[in-house]
TrEMBL record:
<keyword id="KW-0193">Cuticle</keyword>
<dbReference type="InterPro" id="IPR000618">
    <property type="entry name" value="Insect_cuticle"/>
</dbReference>
<dbReference type="GO" id="GO:0062129">
    <property type="term" value="C:chitin-based extracellular matrix"/>
</dbReference>
<dbReference type="Pfam" id="PF00379">
    <property type="entry name" value="Chitin_bind_4"/>
</dbReference>
<dbReference type="GO" id="GO:0008010">
    <property type="term" value="F:structural constituent of chitin-based larval cuticle"/>
</dbReference>
<keyword id="KW-0732">Signal</keyword>
<feature type="signal peptide">
    <location>
        <begin position="1"/>
        <end position="19"/>
    </location>
</feature>
<protein>
    <recommendedName>
        <fullName>Pupal cuticle protein Edg-78E</fullName>
    </recommendedName>
</protein>
<dbReference type="InterPro" id="IPR050468">
    <property type="entry name" value="Cuticle_Struct_Prot"/>
</dbReference>
Length: 122
């Protein structure tokens, strides 16, 4: 759970370093809810007056699912959703870079290799 909390805090701090305006300096917390039960299940949600929102729910140290949103200095809404599990942190957002498509020639080559396995000389 400590790792999840650290990720959430670092994300919030990172958001704050990118866009600091007068509105951001004087932002107020409009909503904050946080719950944890005896089984380690938790959830939190918050919203600020400068339009930063975040929420997360999970089981301490095992799983988490959440997201956050804020407006960039250019006025663009930035949204991020994520899941955390035994395989790591899995973010989903339109702002994340994506790899270019695999060229058709490479796809044909891979298909040829798959359908023509190499023969053993032994």
């Amino acid at each position: 759970m400590k790792k999840i909390f650290v990720v959430a805090v670092l994300t919030t701090l990172a958001i704050g370093t990118f866009a600091t305006t007068d509105k951001d300096v004087h932002a107020e917390i409009l909503k904050f809810e946080s719950h944890i039960d005896h089984n380690g299940n938790y959830n939190y949600v918050y919203e600020t007056s400068n339009s930063i929102t975040a929420e997360e729910k999970g089981t301490g140290g095992k799983f988490a699912k959440g997201g956050y949103a804020y407006y960039s200095p250019e006025g663009e809404l930035i949204q991020m959703a994520y899941e955390v599990d035994e395989n790591g942190f899995h973010p989903k957002s339109e702002i994340l870079p994506t790899p270019p498509p695999i060229p058709a020639a490479i796809l044909r080559s891979l298909e040829y290799i798959r359908t023509h396995p190499q023969k053993d000389d032994h």
